[in-house]
Amino acid sequence: MKTFKLGGVHPPENKFSEKQPVEILPVPESVSIPLAQHLGVPANPVVKKGDKVKTGQLIAKGEAFISANIHSSVTGTVTKIDDVIDTSGYRKKAIIIKTEEDEWDGSIDTSDNLIKECNLSREDIVKKINEMGIVGMGGAAFPSHVKLMVPKGKKAEYFLINGVECEPYLTADHRLMLEKGEELMVGITIQMKALGVDKAIIGIENNKPDAIEYIGKLAQEYKGISVEPLKIKYPQGAEKQLIKALINREVPSGKLPIEVGCVVHNVGTAFAVYEAVQKNKPLIERIITVTGSNIEKPCNLMVRIGSPVAALIEVAGGLPDNPGKVISGGPMMGKALNDLDVPVTKGTSGILVFSKKQSGRVPEITCIRCGKCVNTCPMALEPFFLALLVDKQRFEDCEENMIMDCMECGSCHFVCPSGRPLLDSIRVGKSNVGKMIRERSDK
Amino acid sequence: MNEIVLYSVLSIGGLGTLMAIVLYIVAQRFKVIEDPRIDTVEERLPGANCGGCGYAGCRNFAEEIVKAGSLDGFNCPPGGSETMKEIADALGLEAEEQEPMVAVVRCSGSLEAAPPKTRFEGLNTCAFAHSLYAGRSGCPYGCLGEGDCVVSCAFDAMYMDKDTGLPVIIEENCVACGACVKACPRDIIELRKKGKKSRRIFVSCINKEKGGVARKNCKVACIGCGKCVKECKFDAITLEDNLAYIDFNKCTLCRKCPPVCPTGAIHEVNLPPRKVKEKKEEDSKEA
Amino acid sequence: MSLLTVSGSPHVHADESVRKIMYGVLISLVPAMLVSFYFFGLGAIIVTLTAVVSCVVFEFLIQKYLIKGPVTICDGSAIITGVLLAFNVPSNLPLWIVVVGSFVAIGMGKMTFGGLGKNPFNPALVGRVFMMISFPVQMTTWPKPIPLNTQLTDVVTGPTALAVVKDGVGRGEKVSELLPKVPEYMDLFIGNMGGSLGEISAIALILGGLYMLVRKIITWHIPVSYIGSVFIFTGILWWVNPDIYVDPVFHLITGGLMLGAIYMATDMVTSPMTPKGMLIFGIGCGVLTVVIRVFGAYPEGVSFAILIMNAFVPIIDRAFKPKRFGEEVKNG
Ligand code: SF4
Ligand code: SF4
User: Fold this and answer.
1) Which of A214, A371, B236, C308 has CB 3.0 to 4.6 Å from C273, enough for a Cys bridge?
2) Which of A233, A333, A422, A431 for a ligand 1 pocket mutation test, highest count of atoms within 8 Å of Cβ?
3) Across-strand partners of A97?
């Protein structure tokens, strides 16, 4: 079975909600839709206070090249455009809409019919994806249309689809593959067309045998699409690792996957593309796993963007008595929330509730030079050394030791027997080195 | 036996001599001729290598002074004007008079005034905490309480108050080198004019959020109401982005503004306690 | 409501800690310990206990009263140092020497550098080399094994197999004449020979090593490259002149090679971090060991070889960085 070679870990999977079909979260009373849900420049609002909006209506336009449109996820009145707390507790601009009813914009096809045919040209497909505000749904929320525009001089050979879901606990992609397999396939063919490639590979870790079987069966009907079962290993869902695992190519340091002829999208994105292109439906809802070992009813929910996290937890049985930590995303890369009124965004893949006991870190002692972090780092960095350099504020040396290649997967901290906060230090280093590089290029 | 001793003495001695000769030759060949004035200047510097002057250590500072040939724009904060004067005398230059400065912490969000809403765990540096989250109380401008400033201080002029969770500056030790200003990721610490008898008035908050939002996280935040601005007769207070700032060059320490602040965000330091009734009198004295 | 914790990712941690690793090493030492108790009897037990207790006590005293920092004797590293130190001395060593050795191992070898994780040299080896140089007579009086001996005195002593061969060759005797004077290879393999406590039984040490491999406490790189390079190097010498050089198998199963290669050289703190570095380190140890054994003044060179290589670890770490992902790309 294929996997990537260097490093990686296998944290306990704990996929409690993998058998739970996707339920629909009731439309909340009010939503706050942040203007910066994606990587890149925030969108500019095109509505103002007091405006009536319909579900699916454009409310903010992404005008820069790397930016994305934002649509209303409910029908109601814009009450204000104001700062709301984001996942890290800092305030970001958002459009707050009070829900009145749920009337979808006329252009959207809300039926369940599967539409296989797509007669749009390559450019039109990309344009459509751009219009509908599709972003990467794996977590980083990189605007999808940018990825689909192959830069001059490069050629895409493969379209890779990430159905790995290597993060423990999360099952949103797994459920999506089982329940929306057909649509997913059409979405993939559309993107293959947009890229002009004839080979697409769906990578699925083999802890999801039902998905491998089902998608594998569907794939037989589609030319050029194949399914590759992968050995369970974190962080296989990272772009570079997935490419290495599936077609054994190494993306050069500091370069994008297109350098080796690949474009990688998440299954969630592929599904969103289907809906955008075939049904005219913008990205206004997504599947989110709500889970945790002492959550009463771990589940997968179809959630409108902008709903408060607290509402999701409520549906899953409410917050347990003694919550220690609430995480947006998976346990390896997610962000710990400091407020439960934070809205769900396009990139939220899960809400994870930890008990007091689970949320503490292991006590930190000195490094015993065991070398585990070095041998676990999928990018073959030396986390212990980078952390040391950051401690000593030697940021030039950090850069030389390729600190910017760190993808913050957290494997090093996960394995360290001394419980050293390696990734914490590396983050500080990365932000400093990033500043250094920017200053240099400004000169 | 004797032979052995003799041989060892000879060989080691010979080796030593050889090394000495080699070292001497090398030292001669690679001799760097430096301006002796650099040493003169360096001798007069405190030698703390704190970087407060903006150069990489005392030696570098001395080199730059000698290179520039004038003292304009050079200042050694720990040494103060005395040191600069000495250097000026030694080099036969003019030293400009420097106002003594002192660092002030512009946040009063103590554990009581701005109760923590979350528990932070991880690398205990402000730099990391700042990149991770808004802060224990939810105030995105306030002190993170991990003490990067205290670590950066080379003069033992800071400590972390356990009860308030805020850093405290020991004025007698502070030489205004600015290390803490640089260390704080949130620019909470500011160098201000030390003032006569160390008396100062300043706004102890840098929160730019709207009043209501700021107030929700912290009882003593500046809410940008502007009352102090109206009160000040010397145009020393400006209000920008919901935040008042007192210009220390214009402030006359008239003490009119602190009482009008509804949240008590304006602090007075080292001023005699107010006598409520004789307020007018005192004010005129101060002014 | 209780406060929510905020921390950076990752939010989960592997079920792994320094203590677990240290106790894993201790478990893996059990077979070798049993063999030594079997062959050297009560003396071995007493020496081991003395070493362990004094190491732990010294660590405690230094941390508590000298450094005045946190006391970490529970992490098990001092116990390991104690056991390994005992494994490196003869079973009839006067106990006061053991205590002095422990003091040097913990005090000089470990605590002066700042404790666990910061010591450049393997503490047990520092202790052993110190004793070796300070008390050469006591340190090289090896009791002959008497299974299940409960007597403390009157043991028969004799030189180790390595010393027999080295002395003999030095006097100009042929290797083939000398070999009958040492125990059979099978005995050497099981451990029925004179020598330091823990080094005698190759099989027990290999067993322990396998356990550590399975538990992922060590990787194969250092033991294999160490033992392999000793084997190849002595093999070449033997092939050149079997009259004055012993065969490689003899080198593998005598002396402290197995103990050194499996436990001493693999000590995490004092060995390189990357697989490449580990291989270099192992080969360096192997070559130095053979050089000292064959050409040097001492019959045994494992301790010195490892200590010398320990000194090179920082350089090895800097010189042999892992090949970064995407650094040099050859894509087909
Ligand atoms: S250094 Fe970065 S890429 Fe490497 S394991 Fe740590 S977090 Fe992952
Ligand atoms: S995993 Fe931890 S203890 Fe081991 S080398 Fe890395 S930082 Fe040190």
Assistant:
1) A371
2) A422
3) A31, A78
